[in-house]
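Many introductory courses stop at the sequence. We go one step further.
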Amino acid sequence: MIRIASTSALRRSFSTAAKPIQSTALFGKLEQIVPREQARVKAMRTTHGAEQIGSCSVDQAYTGMRGVTSMIWETSLLDSEEGIRFRGYSIPECQAQLPAAVAGGEPLPEGLLYLLLTGEMPTEADVQELSKELASRSALGSEAEAAIDSLPKHMHPMTQLCAGVLSLQPGSKFAQAYADGLHKSKLWQPALDDSLDLIAKLPAVAARIYRNTFKDGQVIASDPSLDMSANYAQMLGYTDDGFQELMRLYLTIHADHEGGNVSAHASHLVGSALSDPYLSFTAAMTGLAGPLHGLANQEVLNWTLAMQAEVGTNPSDADIEKYLWSTLESGRVVPGFGHAVLRKTDPRYMAQREYALKRMPDDALFRLVSQMFEIAPRVLTEHGKVSNPWPNVDAHSGCLLVHYGLTEQSYYTVMFGVSRAIGVLSQLVWSRALGFALERPKSVTTGWLENKFQK
């Protein structure tokens, strides 16, 4: 796979108006793939439609349907041993094969978007073309800018993100196409149009929220000659090459994680009602804002900073082990370790660790996180009350952001949202292409269960 040798290779002329979606190379590619995949799904349903793929116990019904296999999510699959695979490719494989902005650098999230949409590993030319297309769609417009700027600065950044996305919804091509009576077999086309628009505009929405909330409203203009991650970084106010590379890594590894997590499932559920991508993505973001989903890295960071305040910046392994046991014996959990599905160290954690070893090996907070990587699994195993003692993605991301000075923790979930759009909107396009039905599982009451088991 050819990798882009320098950032300048991604520089391009900028058009203020996007081309009609039908004239884009990506549309042409998908127009070839969609009929083949539609036939594949039809054959699956015809041959195996009545067969069972899972079951649901009473406990599962009461505990969030965890582990119940009951939905199709084409863009990624989570394996308990290998971690997430994007269209069949692991995180290390994506790092090795997706085009990068700098030689030997992190993958460009535009490349992952192409992979998730098409199922094919992109070439350098594919990524340049898609990056240019996104740039042509990235302008917010004066009405959206005014709407975002009018939001109270004390409003949580995630609430602002939802409002900002909804301010873009009046331009939905999907909503208009549905109103005009477009056949359902073609609804994937305006879904793609809207999804590219939204993914392109999100960095500007998110950066504007950051600058309004934390930097006295001093908004930094977009530079559409940059790739999406570098442009997002500079709109936030960070021009360091290392931070740009961090954004490329961050936006790539957080993009998708199967369809059962809250944000992905919310987008899938709302989208199944043929709500447009703006409404569906907003639903995803209200789920991501919940403390049990999108706030994990903040909880890890605060716990780690509290430990650092107690043990100092150069603690011994014994100091850390003592602090871990103190946490566990007080009845608290060690945040950032364990995962609902994974039974090994999260590959997304390892990708961030490798980044830190290369770019910030002497950072005091990273050294502490690194010691935790060596010590915590053993302590948790000895404690004996966890099934998975290995670190997950949230155990690492906070210390990387702090290293570059981005310490406004309430904003971290917004960055997560910018990344997650790549995955959930790619799947939304495919949900419409494959004609997925309105989601409507059956619910029962506790009384119904009592009657069932008394018989």
